Fold Glutamate transporter permease.
Amino acid sequence: MFDFLDSGQYDLLGAFWTTTQLAVYSAIGSLVWGTVLVAMRVGPVPVMRAFATGYVNVVRNTPLTVVVVACSLGLNQTLRFSLGADNFEDIGFRMAVLGLVAYTGTFVCEALRSGINTVPVGQAEAARALGLSFLQVLTLIILPQAFRSVVAPLANVLIALTKNTTVAAAIGVTEAALLMSEMVENEADALFAVFAVFAFGFIVLTLPTGLLLGWVSKRVAVKR
């Protein structure tokens, strides 16, 4: 049933390694972009608040496939924006990461905003009374507590991100979903085995993340 694994025809580990890289780079970028978005959304500048609110509401409700394909067709093929890559595979990979960051950052932003709402308003008021600027209040007092209170929701976002990397196949990135599509066409007599292998692969990628961040959430939870 699993003879196709021994044939050497399919680079299964290579495909999952690409998926892992997509997930890791996109997770780092999403955390950074989501933090910037939430800073703008709760900030004192009306233009930034309006931009962040509009961006989150529009991108979060746009299908991820549309976002990723737009990065590939719009930024790369139309505007010749390649993020420094000089070959098709690298360009596709970087466009996929960019699309995943642009999309997932909105969910990180909303998770952090819910965490900010758990921080007592009196702490920010006391900090401002001491002469701290908005940026100092946000980075030294608000965000550290917000991150601690939303570790579990962020874990769910990162798990969803790992599964969403399959959308990169839409622009030809050679990750797990693209290889699975090829194997489904070539191994029609072993469809159950193909699906089982890829389901197990994604479980291996996502389950440790959930368990680890669940443990971290309990360890760093803010006691109210």
